[in-house]
Amino acid sequence: MRTALIALTDELRRLKTAGVKSVAVSDESVAALRRVVAGCKASRPAAAAAPVVTPAKSSVPPAPVVALKPVASPAGKPMSPPPPVVLPPGGKQVRWDALLELVRNDPTCRAHVRPGKLVVLGVGNLEAKIMFVGEAPGADEEVKGEPFVGPAGQLLTRMIGAMGLKREDVYIGNIMNWRPEMPTPPGAQQIGNRPPTEEEMRYCLPYLRAQIEIVAPALLVALGSTAAQGLLGFGTFKALGEIRGRWREFAGKPLMVTYHPSYILRNQSNRSKRMIWEDLLKVMERAGLPVSDKQRAFFLDR
Ligand code: URA
Q1: Structural domains in the chain?
Q2: Phi, psi angle pair for 5, to nearest 5°
Q3: Is the CB of 153 under 6 A from ligand 1?
Q4: Which residues pair with 257 in a beta bridge?
């Protein structure tokens, strides 16, 4: 429940920073939230009056509470033009290692990463048929230097398992190579995430393109609307529902757009799970993976 609450709070912050001024919440949802909050208060020791929000199972130490303001996007400062990515000749591993060096030493990436945190490149099998593309590293990812290792990543790993694969069988990348910054006092941990700006994504895109070129997957899966916008272009669609579940193309590869795993963390109904699952069934079919009757029927009891 705590994870779901954190995911909900994150989503509300994301919407706020995206300019959304109000959200409609049903009376039943408000009542359910009140019950949850009352339950949390009842189970919290009296001394722990200040709510310190730390992601569940996070490897990030508890942080001082920081008042969240709408994001001052670093886009305030003009960003340098996207980096040219020139890789040495050689096999996939040689080129990927060179790319990792380039990204880690990119002055713009480094300038956006808080002290002690890491620039993040994709991870996985360089022979993968399927490449997942997410949005940006979060708190856990910038500590580990690996995409999708926090709660959403753990769910993604389970989704990959439901497809009959292991995390090591696929490649997982992000459009962004750093965690988009929020205003945070020096020495404090950043709380919450914001979606990257168009400019930030445009900056990092050559690194994603280079990963696609190196891995040469049979197909791509964009997770969530920010990743889809980064790949397909801002303004291509209004709501993810318009484009999910249908094949598109990016960098000459078939691209399936589906919901971000964090959507399921916020929305645990079988109906939501089935929507993503139907998209993933299409991915499995197109990648030539076997699909059992049992897999076809996952989450049908909606
Ligand atoms: N969400 C993303 O889009 N990417 C990550 O790496 C983690 C969470």
Answers
A1: 2-67 (no CATH), 92-296 (3.40.470.10)
A2: -65, -40
A3: yes
A4: 222
